[in-house]
Design brief:
- By secondary structure, the protein is α+β, with helices and mostly antiparallel strands.
- The protein has 26 helices and 13 strands.
- A four-stranded mixed sheet has the order 2-1-3-4. Strands 7-8-9 form a three-stranded antiparallel sheet. A two-stranded antiparallel sheet has the order 5-6.
- The longest helix has 19 residues.
- The chain is globular, with a radius of gyration of 27 Å.
Length: about 625
């Protein structure tokens, strides 16, 4: 009887497969106990989150379903909002699980995938950010992308895409394939300096067109630091002074330092502000932002003889050391969350009037509120954020005090508030990422070299040792390590930023062994990430659209291809290595079709071109240009 029943059941299964194809596999959430704090947060979602790997792609192909790739990170505010509203919604979870292969990705562990998807959404929708949600065909071609959406809108998008995929799959596949990149590969190993100068002039012109000359920065809504562009413009201003560009740079640096982008009580910078006047931050703090901004302000302080800029750099480096440094390794953690332990965005940084009254004397409170813009109604539901207000001399006149009395009161008030804030709790993403620590090493090593500050040297030495002894195994670099095992996919970004960090450390120490280490990392990067089809952001990719690219754009961080090329040219000069020099020049002399359209987003690449040593062609053209000018 059992044999007959089994035979009948088997026959029905076979018939079902013949008529309807293979049955769908029941998938479950795979994120329990994941080493990524961000992914572990999603372990209890009813969405059957898969890990990003070959198995997820094979499952999508087997079931002929779209992949739904949702990319975020631990300290991202809107990532948490979308989780609450959509991924913990039973109706949405059921629809996602039934019709898609849902994959959750920590952008900090899959930086190459994240960069490619950011490029896709910016090219198709004109903007990027996180949470970044991309629908990808089973063949690995990005099809459609959205950022945060309220739950009803998100469910509507899911339903419409599923309907289109069911009814006209072939058209959607053709549309997705048309977005694939078509690189041309390396150019000749020489730079046309007139062309490079032309790109630089375009970047300056575009800057002045895009610039906000009221509040500084770029754009009319949210404001980001845009460090790669500002760093390029600082160098340009030093070599080719332009009064209008100088005005913009000083205005932007002033506004970022004075407004809500900087944490004026504890130091460090938030990731961006949601308003054009730099007053309302999203409160996450990222290691990469702070490392890049510390270096930017140190350079700007020396270039413009501004001690206040150098003080901002010092505060930022001290913040990194106090709040982001992992004392057991000497390396730096990834980020601080935008929400506190009570799930309040910015709660760690905000102050109610009654808190100020309880913590400060009446004199301290009066002075502090005037100095830090706390007079009008609180701009946040949970209180005030200190932002530069009235200067001490004006407060002294208003309150009929000596300036030194005002400064003493402000110092006492700040000490009390800092101690009170230390009792609050702020979630932290404790990943120690190679590339981001490379940026931190660059910042501390350069600061130590320029200032002679031994504390900076000590910090640089700690992170250098972690990178050299833990993440670099002598042959290859790991993106991160957890419990002695590599975590995440190592990328071009990691190699480029670590190579630059090691080079800056070598410049500080002057030791040949340090130059050798920088050289090993740089040359390994070329072998792993560059070839006839140009740059690969990762050694292997499950995304078919990423077969290579001629040039990598700047994002919040500088272009890793531009950084590696620049580092390699310096190392080639140090060692007299002609092959490495030609490799870097060939890579820089590529991507002109993209550069001609919009060089603004490739400022790091253009900067590396301009810093290249004279090649026969570029030397001749420079001479010709000089003769014409004479």
């Amino acid at each position: 009887m059992r044999i007959k029943r089994f035979s009948l059941l088997l026959g029905l299964i076979i018939l079902g497969r013949l008529l309807f194809g293979s049955p769908a596999f029941a998938i479950t959430n795979q994120l329990k106990d994941h080493p990524s704090p961000y992914l572990a947060l999603h372990a209890n979602d009813p969405v059957a989150w898969q890990k990003w790997n070959k198995g997820a792609v094979e499952l999508a192909r087997r079931e002929n379903k779209l992949l739904y790739i949702s990319i975020g990170y631990f300290s991202c505010h809107w990532c948490h909002v979308m989780q609450r509203e959509s991924y913990q919604n039973a109706e949405i979870a059921e629809f996602l699980n039934k019709h898609f292969i849902p994959v959750k990705v920590d952008r900090e562990l899959e930086a190459a995938l994240d960069a490619r998807m950011i490029e896709f959404i910016e090219s198709t929708r004109g903007m990027g950010g996180w949470p970044l949600n991309v629908f990808i065909t089973p063949q690995g071609h990005p099809l459609y992308a959205v950022l945060y959406l309220p739950s009803k809108e998100f469910l509507s998008v899911l339903q419409q895409l599923q309907k289109m995929w069911t009814e006209d799959r072939a058209s959607l596949e053709r549309l997705a394939q048309s977005a694939a990149l078509t690189p041309s590969g390396p150019g000749r190993p020489l730079i046309d300096m007139r062309q490079a100068q032309g790109y630089a002039e375009r970047i300056v012109a575009d800057t002045l067109d895009l610039a906000d000359f009221i509040h500084g920065g770029f754009g009319e809504q949210s404001k980001f630091p845009s460090v790669p562009q500002l760093a390029f413009l600082l160098t340009r201003q030093a070599r080719h002074p332009d009064p209008r560009l100088k005005e913009f740079l000083l205005l932007t640096l002033d506004q970022m330092a004075r407004g809500g982008l900087q944490d004026h009580l504890g130091g460090g910078f938030f990731r961006y502000t949601t308003d054009p006047s730099w007053k309302t931050p999203h409160f996450e703090k990222m290691l990469y932002d702070n490392a890049l901004l510390a270096r930017l302000y140190l350079r700007a302080g020396r270039q413009f003889a501004r001690k206040d800029y150098e003080a901002v750099a010092e505060r930022t480096l001290n913040f990194m050391a106090q709040e982001l440094r992992d004392p057991t390794t000497g390396a730096f953690i990834a980020s601080l969350s935008s929400v506190d332990d009570k799930n309040v965005e910015g709660g760690y940084y905000l102050w109610h009037r009654d808190e100020l009254a309880a913590l400060l004397t009446s004199e301290e409170r009066d002075v502090y509120r005037l100095a830090w813009g706390m007079i009008d109604a609180a701009p946040f539901e949970d209180g005030y954020l200190p932002i530069k207000g009235m200067p001490p001399e004006d407060i002294a006149r208003l309150l009929k005090l000596e300036r030194r009395q005002v400064e003493a009161l402000l110092e006492r008030a700040a000490d009390k508030l800092i101690r009170a804030r230390q009792q609050r709790r702020l979630p932290r993403d404790t990943k120690l990422l190679a590339g981001w620590n490379g940026l931190a090493l660059t910042a501390y090593a350069e600061a130590a070299r320029l200032t002679g500050n031994e504390y900076y040297r000590w910090q640089a030495n700690g992170v250098r040792n972690y990178l050299a002894r833990v993440l670099w195994d002598g042959q290859a670099l790991h993106r991160a390590v957890k419990n002695g095992r590599p975590v995440g996919a190592v990328t071009l970004e990691d190699y480029a930023y670590v190579a630059r960090g090691f080079l800056e450390w070598a410049k500080l120490t002057g030791k040949e062994e340090d130059y050798v280490l920088a050289m090993k990392v740089a040359t390994t990067a070329w072998k792993r990430f560059y070839g006839p089809s140009g740059w690969r952001l990762a050694e292997s990719s499950l995304i078919q659209a990423e077969k290579g690219q001629d040039i990598v754009a700047d994002g919040p961080m500088p272009s890793p291809s531009g950084v590696l090329a620049g580092v390699s040219l310096q190392l080639a000069e140090h060692y007299g290595d002609r092959a490495l020099r030609e490799q870097a020049l060939s890579a820089l002399n590529s991507g002109h079709a993209v550069l001609k359209k919009n060089p603004f987003w490739y400022a790091t690449h253009v900067g590396a071109m301009l810093a290249a040593p004279d090649t026969p062609q570029s030397a001749r053209e420079n001479k010709d240009t000089k003769n014409r000018q004479d």
